[in-house]
Design brief:
The chain has 746 residues and is of the alpha/beta class. Strand 28 (701-702) and strand 29 form a beta hairpin. The structure holds ligand MGD (2 copies), iron/sulfur cluster and molybdenum atom (MO).
Length: 746
Amino acid sequence: MTTTSDWQPSACILCECNCGIVVQLEDRRIAKIRGDKAHPASQGYTCNKALRLDHYQNNRNRLTAPLRRREDGSYEEIDWDTAISEIAAGFARIRDEHGGDKIFYYGGGGQGNHLGGAYSGAFLKAIGSRYRSNALAQEKTGEFWVDSQLYGGHTRGEFEHAEVSVFIGKNPWMSQSFPRARVVLNEIAKDPARSMIVIDPVITDTAKLADFHLRVRPGTDAWCLAALAAVLVQEHLCDDEFLAAHVTGVDAVRKVLAGVDVPGFAQRCGVDEALIRAAARRIAAAGSVSVFEDLGIQQAPNSTLCSYLNKLLWILTGNFAKQGAQHLHSSFAPLFSAGGVGRTPVTGAPIISGLVPSNVVPDEILTDHPDRLRAMIVESSNPAHSVADSARVRAAMQALDLLVVIDVAMTETARLAHYVLPAASQFEKPEATFFNLEFPHNTFQLRHPLLDPLPGTLPEPEIWARLVRALGVVSEADLHPLRVAARDGLEAYAVAFLTAVSGNPALGRVLPFVLYETLGPALPEGLAGAAALWGLAQKTAMAYPDAVRRAGHADGTALFRAILQNRSGVTFTEHEYADDFALITHADKKIALEIPELLAETEVLAQARPTLTTPDFPLVLSAGERRAYTANDILRDPSWRKRDVDGALRMSVQDAATAGVVAGDRVRITTATGSAEACVEVSDVMQSGHIALPNGFGVDYIDDTGQAVTPGVAPNELTASHWRDAYAGTPWHKHVPARVERVAAR
Ligand SMILES: Nc1nc2c(c(=O)[nH]1)N[C@H]1C(S)=C(S)[C@@H](COP(=O)(O)OP(=O)(O)OC[C@H]3O[C@@H](n4cnc5c(=O)[nH]c(N)nc54)[C@H](O)[C@@H]3O)O[C@H]1N2
Ligand SMILES: Nc1nc2c(c(=O)[nH]1)N[C@H]1C(S)=C(S)[C@@H](COP(=O)(O)OP(=O)(O)OC[C@H]3O[C@@H](n4cnc5c(=O)[nH]c(N)nc54)[C@H](O)[C@@H]3O)O[C@H]1N2
Ligand code: SF4
Ligand SMILES: [Mo]
């Protein structure tokens, strides 16, 4: 007999919005899913994808036992104790022979799960690991480098209230990324007093709703953005009062922008000069402007420069610290660590916000350099599929002395590992994300487990705790007083914690472990993994005391209690608009507009050539576009898709004619790195010379008949590691020179 559960709150894990959902379970199946009206950010909203989450929870590729690779490359199941002791001993050996800094950590959370990764730090510190990376180092680090110089934090738009919304290389209709995206986009489109500006070579579903579509040629955004900013300066459209009061370094910026040849730049990017001027004037005239830049510029040529030029648009017009404009926001646990730019040990590549560029990881391994990386732990990420040049990433991973992968499924990366550890799914443990990026109200949701862990799997906090225990760095005597205090309640725990940590620096190094071991057991049943949130709640309350109090939480302990109790999520900060200035990290609380390197780059645009294609590779391939049925590599079971099951290559009518293909034909796509076959969709949304493949395809899966299937193209079989930004090392996935040939006769 099937048992049907009550409706229970949780969240969708398929994109960073993490919309609240309520679900009904039938035994272990997520049978019914609806938007959760009680969720403070999503308010009942979901997109089409949330309803397909059971394909993640229940599928044939779930791992159910720790695996160890045999000599012949096959895997054998081993028990957890064996796995943990061999893995801990293996890393300890590498530390002793080569130094703990040769142990690299990649991942730590996808679109729905950051809580497990929060515990990794204890083991990594204990073993002496220093270098790490994740997917943010192939998209956001260039923007972060710019942000850190301008004001020292991450900014977000407030699209719900913006008079003008600007989307640059961003297609929120498909990719979402801010609360209730489609509702907000429709509201903007319907309201004659509000405008939408979209900069995208493709007529996306978002562009279709836009008032101004600046349809740039791929890879030419720098010219378009520089022209927009130049119009603001040259036509005297800047907010001089705001600039005088809150911004330094403005003169240097004005000087460079005054010299920009707007008609020439318009021609370079292929956008009508009059349209550029009209869009710039609309931005200047608006009471509020919000801007979202995403992969269309962050994974294309001049990406760091484009991030800078984009930010000039809203800073020059004073669109900061007021409703509907751009904001620095609070964070519950920062996704980006602050600090200057370090360098990687082998290639000297920039380490921005603590992250090694994903693209240089193979170079840090495949070398005789004495400081090369020798071992790696991958948690909740699939770099053998998601990082540029998959063949090279595979070779690098095969060259490691030890590779351990923690995942729910047997992935392309797991298949290269010496050990694979099976994690409980995101619905089988307490889970949360740190994509808490909103202002003035910022929200956080602790999802309670809906199910017990699948037999054989463990939640990451327990996996990391077992690894730390195996190293023997903390004694039971150290932990005992804290365990006792935790039983007496959170107030007693806070006092005992401060005493213990100030008296014993060794505990301070492994804090998440200490919290899990001591506070974890005292938390309500099944929530031990939430223990690390206690520390984060205390920090949040100290960082934004007034905003946390305004949101209804007297202190960190009260905030932690609210998080444990409100299963649909809590608002943890409520800011006033003027707080934006206080969130600037510069001592003078002003935006520092001048970034000399990037101003020099702007001047160079007058000479630089905008094309990277060649006669051999005449087309620009965007490798990895977000569509209605893509969700990174989270859903491996292809039957979740209702459309576009093969992940078609989109191409324009002209390019299809040139290649002699029609819709449904199979083609071979070739780049300097590799080649792959895809099925064609001829589409008038594409401009001539630009083709696009979706992301999230080309992952293998064992279907219900036991057959291995791999629909679509793995985009990174076609991309190259050196094809990256000079400042941040972020890849140019959206701009890969390619050619297309018909494969078989019709
Ligand atoms: N459905 C779905 N939604 C997702 C995800 C998913 O896998 N599927 N993934 C999530 C993640 S991890 C992320 S980072 C976000 C990404 O979200 P987006 O950045 O919105 O996603 P993309 O479709 O990759 O790229 C955005 C746009 O860039 C355009 N583009 C290509 N080349 C250029 C160019 O040279 N200039 C400009 N201006 N635009 C260009 C493309 O036409 C596309 O419309 O989406 C999130 N949401
Ligand atoms: N060519 C090209 N490459 C791209 C992109 C592109 O547009 N084009 N986009 C880039 C971007 S923006 C991103 S964000 C990255 C994403 O790339 P990755 O960082 O590799 O992340 P995902 O693809 O989301 O993979 C998440 C992994 O987590 C696993 N997982 C799911 N739940 C759990 C869990 O509870 N515990 C554990 N331990 N594992 C779990 C899944 O099985 C999956 O293997 O891809 C990047 N790569
Ligand atoms: S995919 Fe993103 S926008 Fe869609 S329901 Fe899930 S979290 Fe919300
Ligand atoms: Mo991403």
